[in-house]
User: Fold these one by one.
Assistant:
Number 1:
Amino acid sequence: MVAMFQEDNGTSSVASSPLQVFSTMSLNRPTLLASSSPFHCLKDLKPEERGLYLIHLLLTCANHVASGSLQNANAALEQLSHLASPDGDTMQRIAAYFTEALANRILKSWPGLYKALNATQTRTNNVSEEIHVRRLFFEMFPILKVSYLLTNRAILEAMEGEKMVHVIDLDASEPAQWLALLQAFNSRPEGPPHLRITGVHHQKEVLEQMAHRLIEEAEKLDIPFQFNPVVSRLDCLNVEQLRVKTGEALAVSSVLQLHTFLASDDDLMRKNCALRFQNNPSGVDLQRVLMMSHGSAAEARENDMSNNNGYSPSGDSASSLPLPSSGRTDSFLNAIWGLSPKVMVVTEQDSDHNGSTLMERLLESLYTYAALFDCLETKVPRTSQDRIKVEKMLFGEEIKNIISCEGFERRERHEKLEKWSQRIDLAGFGNVPLSYYAMLQARRLLQGCGFDGYRIKEESGCAVICWQDRPLYSVSAWRCRK
Amino acid sequence: QKKKRNQPRTPNSDAEVIALSPKTLMATNRFICEVCNKGFQREQNLQLHRRGHNLPWKLKQKSTKEVKRKVYLCPEPSCVHHDPSRALGDLTGIKKHYYRKHGEKKWKCDKCSKRYAVQSDWKAHSKTCGTKEYRCDCGTLFSRRDSFITHRAFCDALAQESARHPTSLTSLPSHHFPYGQNTNNSNNNASSMILGLSHMGAPQNLDHQPGDVLRLGSGGGGGGAASRSSSDLIAANASGYFMQEQNPSFHDQQDHHHHHQQGFLAGNNNIKQSPMSFQQNLMQFSHDNHNSAPSNVFNLSFLSGNNGVTSATSNPNAAAAAAVSSGNLMISNHYDGENAVGGGGEGSTGLFPNNLMSSADRISSGSVPSLFSSSMQSPNSAPHMSATALLQKAAQMGSTSSNNNNGSNTNNNNNASSILRSFGSGIYGENESNLQDLMNSFSNPGATGNVNGVDSPFGSYGGVNKGLSADKQSMTRDFLGVGQIVKSMSGSGGFQQQQQQQQQQQQQQQHGNSRERVGSSSDSADRSSMNVNTGGGPASTSPPYGIHHASF
């Protein structure tokens, strides 16, 4: 393999612009092995072989991207582009987005090129399109439904007997959750409370739409209700804007939001040291192996007992790493704590996509998005435009962010429940175990609505939504410790 | 500039917390004139009054310096506002709160006989009582809010149900994924489904307040449409309606039925008041749409035994209308089908579609490796592996090649990523034969269908899944390619691998035992944790936490 790439180097050493490299590449088709299948046969690969080869290519490419060798990366990218396709089978689709992300990343090392290429690309920030994709995600996956159900249940239980309830929604994009809460409150034996919902979202239109739907429903149910829109990005949110008043019982709901606070500039330092390792890939290997070796045997046995995601690549490494301090997350959590909410419900992606090296993140995200794309494969026909939208505009963008961004730009810093628990605990919150009823309902939702293949695992009072054995999202409830 | 009345106040500010006694709060005329014994609510008023008697008087001046903000506690210990963190921001507020929530309702409206504890509330009500009318979309008028809500619940259920009906009949399994439909429509479906499910815990509360009406989130009925039999259809329909029940033990029963008797609900809907068929009832029900009261009350057979149905027809308010969440019915259908295969039980979480069941012949949820997910979409088409499965296979192959070629025992734990990593880096590294392996395995026909013939890095994978049945063993064995492992074992016998092999063999040979083994060890774990509890129980509860508990 190395030989092959060296061959490429030899032929394309004259070429300095991507276009030229491309042309020489297409003339001088690299062969997989000198004797066996030639490059043009790649198209004839069986899906499974193609899938494996795509994975292989992605990893090879990532190695080249990490070490910054454009030419080798380019060779791999070309093959990837031949095989990957956003409307092919699952692996082809995943590979298409990872390929784009990797290309994006290596292109960033040529800031001039990168900027020139993206200069005219006006970010088509179509609000309605964004809402539409979010809505499709809501429909195609049970994740938000389960999250909303568990969140509402936790709020209802915490607010038993309360007459003045204030709910803060840190991602006010989906009215369905609060419509459900309104109805649930309405059927409380002690009658509905005075309900105030504060929605935080950066787009005014979204909040307006939400306010309209909720006020309409509250009027229909005749529940005293007030919607308090806060147009702000979550990072710029001032706690004063939330207008929490004395005497009211406060609940906070955060759905897939907290991880954005982890974005920080301390990458600069980490990136530097990461680069050192990346230049020496075998070093990374060794380090990883070392990291695994202690405790892995014991943990493997532990896994036996607890049926704990047996093949999860992250379980071991996550626990052995110290929690990196994150000033912004901590100060935000502290600010929330200062409002002394009766309950705070947090939904997060349960994956470890915040590794310091590209390779770590690539591997972890490959597994996660493989599972997510598999979910779609079982539910939605391949030709569906909606499916492609979700894959491209939601997952594709996330992948791009995880793979090709660094520093403040890298916002999709998904972390495992374990780490979130530590953080939230440190901020002065105590875990509120999700009730039996909540879990029962969530399981029924999965069973009853055709979401086969999903599972809900209980992990120390929190819920982990899994696809098969792969944990995807976690829901946990908290309250102020005093 | 208009003064803001409701200045937001953050509760955690360093305000002075004041606890007043009930007597102080209830006192109407705390400030008494010593001459004429007239009482006043405020001292300022008394001072002004004293002027009339030519007594010395003094009005308090507004102090220029910033006064420390005060917050007031409710004296009632069971009240949420008894907690300092939930104190109320002003004196009038706490007084009214105390009257409203913990005081006697002395003021009664003559028109609707609603009672109020605070006179101003009563006054405000009296002004609007009778003038405000509640109009339902169906055209019916109500003067009282609760009758209106009762009506709305029924009326909504009907509207939603009739809107859903056509789709139910087609019984699309993917009902909640109406790709072709417009967003609004699917919006309603999806959200109401949540609603339906969010009610499922609610029936426990019903015995307290008969006047309460639960609104049905009938969206769950749509989910029920996934099943196709006619009884299922009925169940789905019925789920849109209210069941009447006055059975305090309803909760228990429901609980019980969650666990064991899911199936029996499915077809057994019993119509309490009408000899007509269920479907006819439905029809009639929808005809009665415009009357405020429904003419038929449906009941479930499991409730009928101890259920005296009150006359809901004439007075919907008096009746405790209970919504049995559609989720129950719908799940029961599901369980009905699944029990035969998986053995049922609330705990069996991952239910697999039937095509899986048939192909993989009695696989319980935990033990189905995700490789099988590939066959979910089209069981009859050529097998295509899911992306997850491909990644796993890649990881396996990576480990194989690294074992065979590097000669180094790369710590075969079940951490797939390290293996995958070595897969990637191995290729990048010195070994050309890695790729040879990769390509060889392509040509190896055994490798395409399943992972046969590949050394398994998931030595403990099978072991992870407790309680595999005998049937499944062959599956698992094929899957893990144990034969190959044994072969490769002889080549390189690292400790890890031996361990792995042992695990595999255990898994094969002592499968029946594995459950017991796990059980007994968890037993001992239980015991030890109990010991810990009894030993250090009181000491281990941290004081702040305890206080916290008490305060809520």
Number 2:
Amino acid sequence: MTGPDTVAGQRTGAGTGVGLGTGVGTAAGLRPVPFLRVFGVEVRKTLDTRSGQLLLAGVLLLSVLGTVWAWIARDEQVAVFDRYQDATSLGTVVVLPVIGALAMTSEWTQRTALSTFTLQPRRDRVLVAKLLAALAVAAVTAVIAVGIAAVGTLGAAALHGIPVDWGRPLTSAVGMVLVVTLNALMGAAIGLLLQQTAAAITLYYAAPVGWAATGHRVFGEAAEWLDVFTAFNHVAYLEFGGHLGPILVALGVWIVVPMTVGGVRWLRRDVPS
Amino acid sequence: MIRFENTTKRFGHQAALTEVSFTCDPGTVTGFLGPNGAGKSTALRILAGITRATSGTALVDGRRYRDLPVPGRVVGTVLDAAAQHPGRTGREALRLAASMSDLPASRAEELLERVGLGNAARRRVGTYSLGMRQRLGIAQAMLGDPYVLILDEPANGLDPEGIRWMRETLRVFAAGGGTVLLSSHLLSEVEATVDRLVVISAGRVVAQGELTALLGGAGVVVNGPDLVGLRIALSGAGLAVSAASGGLRVEADTETVGRVASAAGQVLTELRTGGGTGLEDLFFDLTSGRRGPTGPPGTGPAGTRLVAARDKAARDKEVLA
């Protein structure tokens, strides 16, 4: 992602393109930066800071540790793929949403919004690029985690000399990637709503847990309509039959609503000094 | 070129900017001068499109900032040198910026060398001094070879060598036809760098014009071995002369005084504008409580001086707010 050696949109004025600037030129003939480039920059931003690198390393490390722990601690007769998926999901489901939230908050918390929006004043493009970047990073990491789970399953079979039960591997893998991506998207939505890192991460972990703990007591079965964890569970096993309504409502409330409210604020907000 | 047209910004009921209007032309460095809290940063942020004006417009090259297709190729901005991610290296920060303007990564390396950060490129910005961040900011602003520069307090954190470097950089930029708008509360820095001044106080433009005209209003100081003869010659030429410590004070520009002295065969040992003190007086007169920003223009001591300056520099179109 180091950029091409050609420069798109050559200016028609006398700018030399070298040196500290001759100060002469014209905006005529310049074309907007392609969206793919904006997207590439946002992907790069999630990976090029120490915090981003530590978080991603943490995700993979937790997945590997979960797998090794499963090898050591479990007294298995059969190596079940789904159980290794659970073992690796600790890292992806818990940590990747933080990467999603950071993607939406760090520009404001680290004050880089100043550079970002002066270089790309079309905030809508930056926002869409950031969301897609967070989703892409989450999805790719989830795919790697699924790979670790598969290796874990085969490793257990080899270590303990037991047979493998893949179950429905494709459903399991797709469900896991979907859930991890949705979790990251929810992290991003809450980050977008609050635009402050610490507050977003706190709300992300506290609010759905709070609802899951208290909602059922107050609203009984109806609480399912707002229980995002139940919705994620259905998605994980691709069980949409009969649950589609509650799933969509829960995802709408926990993802679409904060994303919409936060998005409007993102587009209009003055960059603080 | 840069143009503010009746730019007004309110935070709630508080007015940060009131009907700010001025223009910066290609080939000039304009100093945006005012005390802290006068609204300089707010105005520059509105110009750069990161703060919304309540009313009025601010244009770069005839367009609103957000309508520029690739802003980094038209205008370079350093609004807050400290606003860099501390976890990124200087090189990474510039590469990201280059990428955002669709420029090659090699451009980042080039600018790192140019601003003297080549050796620090691999260090994280969190370890940079404020002066190094200013250089990084300038490098980022210059990446796209722009023809307009907007700098908020660019001298902040720079050592004397850095200030000199900044001054040279801006002069070369303007000499090549570029437009520079820089804010400062450091009078001496502004005086040595800018061609024009826009003075702001409590959100209103209280004076603007050519630096020489504003300074000229404070008169020039002239000295020579024959002060009596010199005084007669200057008075004879219709200039207002008064005694001053270390010579005579004349209400004229240096060239006029020099010509009169030359014609009269007078030897000069010193000839200078009112200098820093003149601008400093002007600045404090305009921005301190001695003359409220809402008072009628041209009534305070500085206002009088400004009117005098305007009359003398009739070619200028400076406006008293």
